Amino acid sequence: MCQTQEKGIPLSNNLRTRILLGAVAVVAVSFPLQAAKLTTPTKTARSLTNRGTSQFVSSVSGMNTNGPEFAEMDIKNFADQTPAKSPQSPGVDPTLTIPIVAGKQVSAPVGLAANFPGLNHFVERTSDGGNQFSLEPPDMGLAVGNGFVLQAVNLVMNIYDVHGTPLITAASLNEFFYHEHAVWRGAPPAPPPGHFGHSISDPTVYFDHDTQRWFLTVITFDVNPATGAELGTDHIDIAVSSTPNPTGLWKLYQIDASQDGFLCSLADFGPCFGDFPHVGADANGFYVTTNSFGFFNFGGYRGVNIYGFPKSALAANASSISGVLYSALVYDTGEPAFAVMPATTPIAGQYDTDNGGTEFFMTALDLGAIYDNRVAIIGMTNTSALNFDPLQTQLGGSILLTQTYGDPLKAAQKVGNIPLGDLVYGRPEGVLDASDSRVTQCVYANGKLFGSNTSRLQVGSDPTPLSGAAFYIFKPRVTGGSDVGGALWRQGYVAVASNNLIYSSIGVTQSGKGVMTFTLVGPDHYPSSAYALVDKVTGIPGDVRVAAEGVGPQDGFTEYADFFGPGLPRPRWGDYSAATFDGDSIWWAAEYIGQTCTDAQFAADTTCGGTRTLNANWGTFISEVRP
Known about the structure:
Blueprint (H helix, E strand, L loop, with lengths): L3 E2 L7 H8 L5 E3 L5 E4 L4 E13 L17 H8 L20 E2 L4 E2 L4 E9 H6 L8 E2 L3 E6 L2 E6 L2 E6 L4 E7 H6 L20 E10 L4 E11 L6 E12 L8 E7 L15 E10 L3 E10 L6 E10 H5 L5 E7 L13 E2 L15 E7 L6 E11 L12 E13 L12 H7 L15 E5 L2 E12 L5 E15 L3 E12 L5 E9 L5 E9 L2 E10 L9 E5 L29 E5 L2 E8 L6 H6 L14 E7 L2
Parallel strand pairs: 5-26, 6-32
Antiparallel strand pairs: 1-8, 2-28, 3-24, 4-16, 4-20, 7-35, 9-10, 10-11, 11-12, 13-14, 14-15, 15-16, 17-18, 18-19, 19-20, 21-22, 22-23, 23-24, 25-26, 26-27, 27-28, 29-30, 30-31, 31-32, 33-34, 34-35
């Protein structure tokens, strides 16, 4: 789970990584730099559970504060974590040091088309009549197609037209998937199933241009409906639209993830939960990846899970669907794979159809060192077999040598109004967490595999370490059926002097034009949504451009609450942004701060005119650029 909640604190991806552990510089490379191979993973058959149909319904706004604002299960799990590095991972070069790069200018926006505010904390918390929890950060999914824009954030979903006009308003994901409230704040007795609904997190959305269907996934944790306590079972819920119109009916499916992962079926190691789900697709399959962790003995990492299911059957809303699960992914250095990102492709004609069809994945290493210079390409081959015998698919991969990247640092904000910090917590302005250096987006276009992550770096001669964006463009290749590797075509960094670029993502059009997106924040900028255009021919990003300038600092509860003990808050941002494509346009959604108010205004009205709540003030912004 990716959020910290008023409801509580579902587990942080950034910390899970730690527990698992216990002008732009561009380099062109035209030959493989191979460091290690993926060993043979465990392969098992998996089937989806058919849960019927559902439809999004606009919610009624309300601010009800009866009942808990923080969930007991999430506070416990979050506090149990220890953000410490493990010993040096095998295969890491111990001589690596911080990358030193040239800074980019911050320039006026170019190429912007649609540009409008997305969901924010006030809308989420007051949706479903106020029967919601407050959550930080806003984990986001975004998909665009057929004139619709879908944004999912934490527990709610909006559907817009391409001009930003809402077609539904803050539909509850608990209502959509389970016909319930996240928490009942009204008078007793609570409606079924009880006072607490399922704990839902980490939404991702995807529009498949090939089948003209929309896909939505979330993690779902079963809880005691009377107390909200965890029960030790969890699911990956998958919804697929029945038509190209997302406002219509959707088919619901489910994967029980409790036993999925290395040793998860054994009492001493399981049950497990699947964290950080992300989705991709090729001509034949729809893919979901997760990081598996022990449920009750938190900190026990159980490896990556890769699920593959026949896309055509999902698009047809078939009642029975079988697929495949790959788990126990380990490189021959002895290191486990982590946070494997599946690729999406702008148009059907650009899928890799060799070797029976191939779906590519990308992942960074950096499991035990501050710095690393390795990225892995993984491929599921013979994906056409998903349509008749999923166990005939194969999985292989290689670790390739790249530029150095490192764990990003927490990012300072421009000084501004922090009424929650001043009046409630008595704490100074906080920083933004930049998570870790995992790959956060993967796109396969024009025969190339694009990915990006956030990295610690230094800009020019200024010795101050900052966080910036790193990118990688590979030419993947498959030989011998499952020998997956590739060559590094371009790589580099995007950074801004004295400021930070965090939670990068990358989008690519069908012609190969790209856009890198991120949050721009630092002494000169409140948290803002920014982007850089990537040249199709050279692969070099241009200036950093601001799509939506922030107007104040983050002033949320994770900036100040003592989650690890006295004076030890865990500021949240991210955990991931979202970029996608629609024809010749690239769309993205990023977190920013779109409101500010003084202490006096907050004291008189903790919503500051309906722009925030008592506990948080995050916002999101949706942008379209035509590179």
